[in-house]
Fold this sequence. Notes:
Elements lengths: L7 H17 L11 H14 L4 H19 L2 H9 L4 H19 L1 H13 L7 H19 L24 H4 L1 H17 L7 H23 L7 E12 L4 H4 L5 H12 L7 E3 L13 H13 L3 E12 L2 E12 L1 E2 L1 E3 L39 E3 L2 E7 L6 H8 L4 E6 L9 H16 L3 E5 L5 E3 L5 E4 L6 E11 L3 H5 L2 H25 L2
Parallel strand pairs: 1-2, 2-3, 8-9, 9-10
Antiparallel strand pairs: 1-13, 3-4, 4-6, 5-7, 7-8, 10-11, 11-12
Helix pairs in contact: 1-2, 1-3, 2-9, 3-5, 3-6, 4-5, 6-7, 7-9, 7-17, 9-10
Amino acid sequence: MVQASPRPLLGAIRYLLSLVAGALVTLGFSPFDFWPAPMLAIGVIFLLTRTLPLRITARCGFLFGVGMFGAGTSWIYVSIHEFGAAAPALAGLLTGLFVLSVAALMVLPVFVLYGWLNQRFAQRRWRPWQQALLFSGLWVLFEWVRSWLLTGFPWLLFGYALIDTPVAALAPLTGVYGLSLLMVTTACLLFALVIPARQKMSRTGNVVALAVSIVCWGLAWSLDAIKWTQKSGELSFSAVQGNIPQELKWDPEYFTSTINTYTDLSEDSWQQQLIIWPENAIPLLYTQVTQLLAHLDALAEQHNSTLVLGMPVDEYDSGEVFYHNSIVAVGNGKGRYDKQKLVPFGEYLPMQWLRGLIEFFNLPMSDFSPGNPGQTLLEAGSVRIAPYICYEVVYPDFAAGLARQSGLLITISNDTWFGKSIGPVQHFQIARMRALETGRQMIRATNDGITALINHKGEVIATIPRFSSGVLSSTAEVREGQTPFMRFGSWPVILLSLLMVAAVLLARTRKQATSLP
């Protein structure tokens, strides 16, 4: 039953707990990797809000979102202040506005809907396990909504926290949302057990629901023995980490030094079948460096090697010029890929009138156009490669779609924008999940880390230390076959979450109908 509003002191404590619980979520992700933290956080907020009036539930949920994104995406401040030349106060204000907006648009609706349904069907007492299933289904549905609403921001998905646990084997079957559903449902059911049960049936329902959840953990663990994909070949490679300072990267006077850095580091790697330079390794437009590309093409072809590199590409159509953030393959390979998932305010301005307002909105290459869907994959010899540029790797279904016809994944990035913050490490954790979901090995090449080889189980095989220049040389497996997640995407989990919500509401509707005189 919905209770009256708490007294002022109790209310203040409740709001503070909501904020702290949200901040606690961050500890579940890299570099902290304490996966029980999100379970504790979501359990606490579920317990806090299950009997509150709608308006207080909404406030607690909003504060939970503020704490979650305030702590978990604090790295945005680094980009705005250190590399966007915004004063600390302004950078703090813009970061705060971002956090408030994401909390309001992508977390608050979960609690508004949950609180409204709690009140709508509260004529007879809720059973705690029913509320747990309702809340869990709504949470995962809105995690999915976050992946596409306003271009999407699928960051801090709870399932990422389970990447280094045995139940990570569920990811090739359900994707990251399946892991989120498993974690959130279990957490809410565990906390439901501490709710006093006035009826024996209510207590039994709690225990049965939790038992089913725990069985699912065991089944997820057992999936590790299944081989969804198989090795079909291998490819020798070198991934080059230039460690070019961000403040110099786009300086025209530093261009020659940048190119020399990459060519010198690559000097002993031309015998490799594949060489990878990171995002915008060449910081000039395609038409400005045709001679350089011709030289690199001839050099790579001479050694029967493929060079894949990031650079901005200018394309002209009917008198208009379009700029793309691209990957280009030269030498014994072919293809060009234009980034499709652009970063708002970083690679394009949703509101052009902001340009010139402050230096942050004039960042280099902040006027890109998205690439066309359905682009062909890159090729290195006979190996088809699915490419992802930086932010694109955070989209589970998008990544799975590109991977279907590939034997290997590569992602290039320039996380230098986020300095020594936790952002680049979180980004790397997300990339690992994409390798696990698709059963493909992934080569990740970045400007200053984390450059790495990730195997088909999302495990890190080798890396280069961050904030240093170097070359990672190894052999990557080429794999064939498709995981269930590659075939069906996130839809089975979305439908299961909807079914959980619908089943609980149907049961409540019937119970209310039988209680009417």
